[in-house]
UniProtKB/TrEMBL annotation:
UniProt cross-references to InterPro entries, sorted A to Z: SKA1, SKA1_MBD_sf
Protein name: SKA complex subunit 1
Annotated PANTHER family: SPINDLE AND KINETOCHORE-ASSOCIATED PROTEIN 1
Annotated Gene Ontology cellular component terms: mitotic spindle; outer kinetochore; spindle microtubule
Protein family membership: Belongs to the SKA1 family.
GO molecular function: microtubule binding
Gene Ontology process terms (BP): cell division; chromosome segregation; mitotic cell cycle; regulation of microtubule polymerization or depolymerization
Name of a matching Pfam family: SKA1
Length: 104
């Protein structure tokens, strides 16, 4: 593996990405009337991010990863992202200063 990263570390990152995606889209699919102010602000941020992207793509940004998981977005995380990109499990899209990780 690249830089002595084990399969267990890659699987842990994939599990954390899945948790962050489910948390994000749980808020995204929730009714506005049932949200508190913090969730409503997060919901509107998701709408702004999604308006720049193609509809129907499941994506996540680093801010969501930091918000919903205890994982740090350090060098090891970015090396694992490179491995997942190589295996074509996700894509990186850079638009207007935001890096989106699109799940394939």
């Amino acid at each position: 593996m690249k830089c002595r990263i084990t399969c267990d570390q890659i699987n842990a990152v994939v599990e954390n990405l899945n948790k962050a995606i489910t948390s994000k889209y749980r808020i995204r699919n929730q009714a506005l009337s049932s949200m508190n102010a913090a969730d409503r602000n997060t919901y509107y941020r998701y709408l702004r991010e999604e308006s720049d992207n193609k509809e129907g793509c499941v994506f996540i940004v680093e801010e969501d990863i930091q918000l919903f998981t205890p994982m740090k977005t350090d060098k090891r995380f970015h090396k694992i992202i490179v491995i997942l990109r190589h295996c074509r499990r996700l894509k990186e899209i850079h638009v207007s200063g935001i890096t989106r990780y699109v799940i394939c």
